Amino acid sequence: MKSLFTRLTLLLAVTLSLTACSKDKDENSTHISVKIDGVVQNFSVNAMAMRMEQPADNVYSIQIAGASANLATASAVTLMIVSNEPLAPGKFGFGDLDDPNFSEKGGMIGFALNGTDAFMSSPDGPNLTEITITSISSNSVQGTFKGNIFGLNPSGTALVEMSMTEGTFNVPIIR
To answer: Which of 77, 70, 87, 152 is nearest to 117 (CA)?
Structure first.
């Protein structure tokens, strides 16, 4: 009887832990996701952030990156934020240097399509880059991003523009 009680207690504990955590896992799981020209893309493979701080020089940065697959031909996205103050929740843009909210900090988006074609944010044009940190700790960073990115077509003869909207990220900080 004691063995049956122990097994049932263990089964109940496992069931409760799985159901209690399932909602949190879905909402807070590691991810980088964005609509590129209206199509949802996920970059959750090896999604992580690397943080660098040089207080003596007033340089604080974080690079957030992830890929669509483990293959060399995978697409990948990188978000880069630089500030002259310790990183905290807020907006980081690229191009609005006259805006007092963006004057001493900035954000930039990089995108590699199929592992080769490079796209970057630009300080010109509509839909300028905006990366928003909504939460940051020593272990993780969460937020949103959007902006247009530019690169050359595969033959290198014309400029291609892509729109990134509804981007979200929740990644661990590994350093």
So the answer is: 152
Distance CA 145, CA 63 (A): 13
| Predicted pLDDT of residue 42 | 94
Using one digit for the tens of pLDDT, what is the confidence trace for 56-67?
A: 888 899 999 999
What is the enclosing helix (H) or strand (E) of 135?
strand 130-136
- Return all residues near 43 (Cβ < 8 A) that are at least 6 apart: 31, 32, 33, 34, 65, 66, 67, 68, 75, 76, 77
Bridge-based pairing of strands 45-54 and 59-67 is antiparallel
* Total length of the chain: 175
pTM for the full predicted model: 0.76
